[in-house]
Amino acid sequence: MTKEIVRQAMKKKRLYRNYRATKDPITYNRYKDIESHIKILIRDSVQCFEQKLSNNIKEDSKSFYKYVRSKQQVKDGIGPLKNENGEVSADSNIMAKVLNECFASTFTRESSYGIVNSNIIYDNENKLLCDVNITPEIVIKHIR
User: Which pTM was predicted?
Assistant: First the structure.
């Protein structure tokens, strides 16, 4: 925004506050005049900015495409998903269930049943598991 637009916006704000306090129709008309003037200034400013972008597209294409992407109305969403049976569905309720099942299977707590005690390691001679001692020196030796 240019300094002129900022100055006019402050003036508009001041006039609106004054109108609300006094309910004077003359103040309201001045407020509406400033509001329409600001709209014209903003429209001209945007048009000038877009003209500059289009003139400099050869030298600065990144800014041009950044501006174009910011004005894009369509946002990418989640597309059709396959369930466990391999059926593809684009229905939002079915896709929500498929995503819920996927996240639930990934982020659930495991029971301690079937988990081996981590303090014991396999010993070849006795076919038993025994204790492990890991020191920083051993780790550094194996890293190198």
Answer: 0.49
